[in-house]
């Protein structure tokens, strides 16, 4: 995950060690290096700006803290600024006060919707919830079989479209009936991948949203997507509405820019991250844990207590 | 729709972003011309290094050709971008002579390998070759089913085993079947693998070794499938895959979904591996053979 950004930051911190307290010049140089590191990690320009400005406000004029080197002071502040741009607090999926909680999985082709639908189903099953998966991608070949197999693997029922179903909206009455019969608390609807420029498919999704009134529309984003993901997310949000973001494939080696940018640009929280193909590889998103992983320097908590 | 129109339509998002800005900077010719041009190329993901080189080259050329019109300058830019691509012998020439030709599709998760396998099978069948598909992604849920459905749709045989079977053994069966039946082309789909997962990368090596052992005389094409919408991240995927597999060609998918189609240029230049096909949609005929000059022309020119 984000190896090159982590490496860059570590290099910057290392250079600071042994250089004593923070002078204005040293802070200036360090801020510039951090700016470049973030830009190279493909973080959006506005976010880089607000990050370095926030950091500068914290560091400039800050008195030397007793027991901390200049390097430690910088690390602590970078960490806190990073927690901030990642959203400060953990955001979860709040269950509807009146069941069922309906969750939509949406996103571009191949982003990881179907896999994440099954991962989420497993997550809720682990909380002893009654979960139903809905195979509502009628477009991609064998998308239905895929969800069916995944449902079998985790022991979660999957509502399959009857042969000959052509429009996803035709499934809705079946879902409604099945939910009542099975007393399901959580319903996860897998949808077909679509490009935001495809107005017909975006219209179809809008229609589905109107029908189901989902509690959560989750946008599933491939972490490898880089900056373009942010534009895609904005369009999904404007046209359909996004309640939260799931980043997938963080187990790969990506530059990480989209993950660091999306919260500030979209003003919507990251809720989960996918860390592998296996169905238990879904993690709740904690801004503080993510920030310490990215920074990658020893025991940040101890530093913070001193700072 | 003609071939040229189809490419232009598939590249619409990139064209919208690039062609109009190019046209306007060439018409305006501000003092900041070269800078602006460089920025347009960078914003289309051509990459900072290549963009700079190309613009410097144009600057130098314009110095020696002071009377050049805007159109001549643009034509020069076009040809230097086109020259970045490695010329590749067309497949139709290299394919059916020694059968079967074996095509192995590799790449990270979700880029479009299976879809490309199906589209390619259709292309080659329509060009008069006999084709067989091999379902060597035995890992992802219903990956076999997905390829079998392509086979059904196209009426092309699909060699497969059970989920979880050894992928190298499926590749073996596929090549065997192709040889036994005198089939021209064997197209083998593999599981998605992230470039930092060593065990999966080793599996790919094993598949490659089996193919060479079973069909020592066959031309083997290892096509790396890259999702064009991921921009510069595709470069690191390419770097890692060339280390472990003899990648002989690239397929760039989902160009219909990005305004940064310039990444094709950055990728082509990186290791001088030819771009073979581009994917511009999900349908069977949305895979187009790649032609550098048509591509460059389509993203640079509004008309
Ligand atoms: N390594 C890794 N692979 C993942 C992760 N999430 C999904 N994948 C893989 O990514 C590929 C695409 O996942 P899908 O769930 O089929 O994606 P999708 O968005 O449903 O795709 P379409 O329905 O075709 O649009 C599959 O090979 C998954 O196994 C992840 O967190 N890490
Ligand atoms: N818009 C668009 N979608 C494409 C293109 N090529 C493939 N897709 C879609 O991308 C998604 C993933 O395609 P697959 O062929 O399943 O990808 P894969 O690489 O085999 O995925 P895994 O086997 O899970 O690693 C599907 O929804 C395809 O329909 C393309 O050129 N344009
Ligand atoms: Mg899917
Ligand atoms: Mg596949």
Automatic annotation (TrEMBL), chain B:
Q: Where in the cell is it found?
A: Cell membrane; Cytoplasm
- Which molecular function GO terms apply here? GTP binding; GTPase activity; signal recognition particle binding
- Write down any Gene Ontology CC term: plasma membrane
EC number annotated for this UniProt entry: 3.6.5.4
How is this protein situated with respect to the membrane? Answer: Peripheral membrane protein
Q: Where does GTP bind?
A: 107-114, 189-193, 253-256
List the HAMAP family. FtsY (MF_00920)
Report the protein name in the record. Answer: Signal recognition particle receptor FtsY
Broad class of the protein's primary localization = membrane
Q: Which reaction does it catalyse?
A: GTP + H2O = GDP + phosphate + H(+)
Q: Which GO terms describe its biological process?
A: cell division; SRP-dependent cotranslational protein targeting to membrane
The answer to keyword Phosphoprotein applying to this record is no
What job does the chain carry out? Involved in targeting and insertion of nascent membrane proteins into the cytoplasmic membrane. Acts as a receptor for the complex formed by the signal recognition particle (SRP) and the ribosome-nascent chain (RNC).
Q: Which domain of life is it from?
A: Bacteria
- What quaternary arrangement does the UniProt entry report? Part of the signal recognition particle protein translocation system, which is composed of SRP and FtsY.
Query: In what residue span(s) does the SRP54-type proteins GTP-binding domain sit?
Result: 274-287
Keyword annotations from UniProtKB, A to Z: Cell cycle, Cell division, Cell membrane, Cytoplasm, GTP-binding, Hydrolase, Membrane, Nucleotide-binding, Receptor
Q: Which family would the database say this protein is a member of? A: Belongs to the GTP-binding SRP family. FtsY subfamily.
Q: Which class of enzymes does this protein belong to?
A: hydrolase
């Amino acid at each position: 995950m984000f190896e090159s950004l982590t490496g860059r930051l570590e290099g910057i911190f290392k250079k600071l060690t042994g250089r004593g307290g923070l002078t204005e010049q040293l802070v200036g140089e360090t801020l510039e290096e951090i700016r470049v590191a973030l830009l190279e990690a493909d973080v959006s320009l506005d976010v880089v700006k607000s990050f370095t400005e926030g950091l500068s406000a914290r560091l400039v004029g800050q008195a030397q803290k007793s027991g901390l080197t200049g390097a430690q002071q910088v690390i602590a502040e970078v960490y806190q600024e990073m927690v901030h741009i990642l959203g400060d607090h953990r955001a979860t999926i709040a269950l509807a006060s009146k069941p069922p909680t309906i969750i939509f999985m949406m996103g571009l082709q191949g982003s990881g919707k179907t896999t994440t639908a099954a991962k989420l189903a497993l997550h809720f099953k682990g909380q002893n919830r009654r979960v139903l998966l809905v195979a509502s991608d009628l477009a991609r070949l064998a998308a239905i079989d895929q969800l069916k197999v995944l449902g079998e693997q985790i022991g979660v029922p999957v509502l399959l479209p009857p042969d000959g179903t052509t429009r996803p909206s035709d499934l809705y009455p079946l879902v409604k009936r099945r939910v009542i019969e099975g007393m399901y608390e959580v319903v996860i609807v897998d949808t077909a991948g679509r490009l935001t420029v495809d107005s017909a498919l975006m219209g179809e999704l809008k229609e589905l949203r109107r029908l189901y009134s989902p509690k959560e529309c989750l946008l599933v984003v491939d972490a490898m997507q880089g900056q373009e993901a942010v534009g895609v997310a904005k369009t999904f949000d404007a046209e359909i509405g996004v309640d939260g973001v799931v980043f997938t494939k963080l187990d790969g080696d990506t530059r990480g820019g989209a993950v660091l940018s999306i919260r500030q640009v979209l003003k919507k929280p990251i809720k989960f991250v996918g860390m592998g193909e296996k169905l238990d590889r879904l993690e709740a998103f904690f801004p503080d844990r993510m920030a310490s992983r990215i920074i990658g320097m020893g025991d940040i908590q101890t530093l913070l207590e001193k700072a | 729709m003609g071939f040229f129109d189809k490419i232009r339509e598939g590249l619409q998002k990139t064209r919208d972003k690039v062609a109009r800005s190019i046209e306007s900077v060439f018409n305006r010719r501000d003092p900041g011309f070269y800078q602006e041009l460089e920025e347009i190329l960078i914003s289309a993901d051509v990459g900072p290094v290549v963009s700079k080189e190309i613009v410097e080259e144009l600057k130098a050329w314009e110095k020696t050709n002071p009377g050049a019109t805007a159109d001549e300058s643009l034509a020069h830019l076009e040809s230097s971008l086109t020259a970045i691509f490695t010329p590749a012998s067309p497949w139709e020439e290299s394919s059916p002579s020694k059968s079967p030709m074996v095509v192995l599709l590799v790449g990270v998760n979700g880029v479009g390998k299976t879809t490309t396998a199906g589209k390619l099978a259709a292309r080659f069948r329509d060009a008069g070759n006999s084709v067989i598909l091999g379902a060597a992604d035995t890992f992802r849920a219903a990956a076999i089913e997905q390829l079998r459905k392509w086979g059904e749709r196209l009426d092309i045989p699909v060699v497969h085993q059970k989920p979880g079977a050894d992928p190298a053994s499926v590749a073996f069966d596929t090549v065997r079947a192709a040889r036994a039946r005198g089939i021209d082309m064997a197209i083998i789909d593999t599981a998605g693998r992230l470039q930092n997962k060593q065990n999966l990368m080793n599996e790919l090596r094993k598949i490659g070794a089996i193919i060479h052992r079973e069909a020592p005389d066959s031309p083997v094409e290892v096509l790396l499938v890259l999702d064009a919408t991921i921009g510069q991240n595709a470069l690191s995927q390419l770097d890692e895959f060339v280390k472990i597999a003899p990648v002989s060609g690239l397929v760039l998918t989902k160009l219909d979904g990005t305004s940064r189609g310039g990444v094709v240029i950055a990728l082509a230049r990186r290791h001088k591996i030819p771009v073979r096909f581009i994917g511009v949609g999900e349908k069977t005929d949305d895979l187009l053979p790649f032609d550098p000059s048509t591509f460059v022309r389509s993203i640079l020119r509004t008309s």
